[in-house]
Amino acid sequence: MKKPIIQKLAIIGVGLMGGSLALSLKNGGYVGEVIGIGRGIENLRNAFNLGIIDKYTQNLKDGVIDADVIVVAIPVESIVDIIDKAQTFMKDGAIITDVGSVKGEIVKNVDKILDSRLAFVGGHPVAGTEKSGADAAFSTLYKGSKCILTPSKSTKGEALEKIKLMWEKTGAEVIVMSTEDHDKILAAISHLPHMIAYSLVNTVDGIDDFDESIINYSAGGFKDFTRIASSSPEMWRDICSMNKTAIVDMIDRYMKELSQLKTLIEEDSHNEILDLFSKSKKARDSLG
């Protein structure tokens, strides 16, 4: 019989990310028991009924007290605060990690408040959908994806290896990097696309030159491109706040690129437009 790599796992926030992690580990036999912790009782009951978690509680102390690993899967603005509140109840040697898509502010502030009995490994699985809640969770979410870990100088080596192994068991490729590199990269490949999607939907929805809303004519291309604009507004507001510098930098870069294209169109520079589009197609095709 396969021996679990984690005997007792507590997940604070049993939604798409936390729920999918639990399902993957449970299906693979890599975890003994999963405790779900959250504020919404209906979501917790749903997660239990779906087999995502084995027990659930709305009481932070009861949820984390005997856990070997605690995964914090809640909005980024609340991660440090919930760790601060929960750590008093954690057993010696417990490992805390998170799934937040901003790492600099989180790792820096957790380092300031973390009890020396515990270990923290900053984490971000680069996967997801626009859906939320336990209903959205599925066991293969992380298969073939990348998971970035951002340990600080105070991160214990054995804790890093444990969390690395946990994510590898979900099928993810684990990469270790600095918080600075993470936040710059994610601003480009994740945060900027969300900013563009939200802005594009608002641009089209705000066009009032016609008798009816032209967004109703949206076809596959528009819907596919803007799918991520259905993501949680609150979550993305918080990400904008916590990764402001990198996001603003990427918006500036994008606006420069878009301005260049606008100029080429205005000047009927057909060959230059073709070159620009061809370069973009080649880069996109390389992603597979």
- Report the strand count: 8
Q: Give the overall form.
A: elongated
What topology, given as strand order, has the largest sheet?
A: 3-2-1-4-5-6-7-8
Task: Give the topology string: H per helix, E per strand.
Answer: EHEHEHEHEHEEHEHHHHH
Residues in helices, as a percent range = 40-55%
What is the count of distinct domains?
2
Structural Rg: 21 Å
> According to CATH, what is the topology of the largest domain?
Rossmann fold
Helix/strand-derived class? alpha/beta
Mean pLDDT: 94
Instruction: Please tally the helical runs, counting DSSP H or I stretches of 4 or more residues.
Output: 11
User: DSSP strand (E) fraction?
Assistant: 5-15%
* Low-pLDDT runs: none
CATH superfamily of the largest domain: NAD(P)-binding Rossmann-like Domain
CATH architecture group name of the largest domain: 3-Layer(aba) Sandwich
Describe the structure.
This protein is of the alpha/beta class and 288 residues long. The chain folds into 2 domains: 6-177, Rossmann fold, CATH 3.40.50; 181-285, 6-phosphogluconate dehydrogenase C-terminal like domain (6-phosphogluconate dehydrogenase C-terminal fold, Orthogonal Bundle). Helices cover 49% and strands 15% of the residues. It is built from 11 helices and 8 strands. The chain has helices at 16-28, 41-49, 60-64, 76-86, 104-113, 157-168, 179-205, 220-225, 233-242, 244-266, 270-285, and strands spanning 6-12, 31-37, 55-57, 69-72, 95-98, 119-126, 146-150, 173-176. The protein has an 8-stranded mixed beta sheet, sandwiched between helices. Helix 4 links the parallel strand 4 and strand 5. The longest helix is centred in the middle third of the chain and has 27 residues, at 179-205. The mean pLDDT is 94.
